[in-house]
Design a protein that fits this description.
Number of helices: 6
Helix content: 25-40%
Order of helices and strands: HEHEEHEEHEHEEEHE
Structural class: alpha+beta
Strand order of the largest sheet: 9-5-4-6-10
Low-confidence stretches: none
Mean pLDDT: 90
Largest sheet: 5 strands, antiparallel
Radius of gyration: 17 Å
Length: about 210
């Protein structure tokens, strides 16, 4: 990621923050990057205005300096943990996405409105709700990393990188989501399960 210093990368690693949850807010006001980050489920912004205390340029989605006060990271994580894990599919892109949201209906609309990863035919195929949804989504994406790919696309006149997108079958993604919550015995409620052969794409593992 261009713009992240070695010290910032080390800080993020120490805090256990994956780069997929880090957003380049260069040229954006706080009111602007907050909305985009919330929609994309991003946790930390960089290339922001320096904090007054130490001049740090990493902030949480709410605009707080996370380097001066690391507790703000924990607060943001707790706020994001409960919600919905979803599996979405794009037939045009032969792509599967696993994500986290607070409201499935809003996320379904936003994926297509923003042409996430460059596609606008996303369908939500599977959803579950849980108090541990954030942890389940993170673990499932980790298990599927062998099939991952990313691409840049335009979002509100700003180039962003897609995350949690995979070249695999819906059934493969669902298998790993189930594994993510059964391993930890997390309580979940299946809200939607609409399997379709149209989304049984080839499993293309990275070399």
């Amino acid at each position: 990621m261009n713009g992240l210093t070695t010290d910032q990368r080390n800080f993020l690693k120490e805090q256990g923050i994956h780069l997929k949850h880090v957003f380049n807010a260069e040229g954006l006001k706080k009111s602007e990057y907050r909305l985009i980050m919330k929609e994309l489920n991003m946790l930390i912004a960089y290339n922001v205005s320096p904090c007054q205390q130490e001049g740090h340029t990493l902030r949480t989605r709410s605009g707080h300096c996370c380097q001066c006060n690391t507790a703000t990271i924990g607060f943001q994580r707790r706020n994001d943990s409960a919600g919905v894990v979803y599996i979405a599919g794009s037939i045009v892109g032969e792509t599967i996405k696993i994500g986290f949201t607070k409201a499935e209906e809003i996320r379904s609309e936003s994926l297509n409105r923003t042409k996430y990863a460059g596609f606008n035919d996303w369908q939500i195929l599977f959803t579950l709700s849980s108090e541990n949804a954030g942890r389940i989504e993170t673990k499932a994406n980790s298990l599927l990393r062998g099939y991952s790919f990313s691409t840049e696309y335009r979002h509100d006149d700003h180039w962003v990188e897609s995350h949690e997108t995979y070249r695999c079958a819906y059934s493969k993604a669902k298998e790993f989501v189930e594994l993510a919550y059964t391993r930890e015995s997390y309580k979940v409620k299946i809200e939607k399960n609409n399997p379709s052969n149209n989304y049984e794409f080839r499993n293309l593992k990275k070399c």
